[in-house]
Amino acid sequence: MVKRMSESKEREEFPAQEMDRIDIEDAHAALREAEAKGTILLRDIMEELGDA
Asked: What pLDDT is attached to residue 21?
């Protein structure tokens, strides 16, 4: 029974890891798009305003 719980946990962690990987890829794509458009990152604006 312990083995089944471990296998179940592994199955739950894999989709979470996959979702994290997709989120990271999406974030990188958004940064590339912002750089290509010449837009300013919110973080940079916040630093300029002293809110960061």
From this structure: 92
Q: Return phi, psi of residue 39, to 5°.
A: -85, 165
Distance CA 38, CA 10 (A): 42
Structure tokens at 41: 């990152």
Domain count, the chain: 1
E-assigned strand segments in 1-52 = none
Q: Residue 34 in contact with residue 41, Cβ under 8 Å?
A: yes
Determine the Cα–Cα distance for residues 32 and 35; give it in Å rounded to an integer: 5
1: confidence class by pLDDT, cuts 50, 70, 90? very low
Q: Domain of 36?
A: 2-49
Predicted TM-score (pTM) of the model is: 0.49
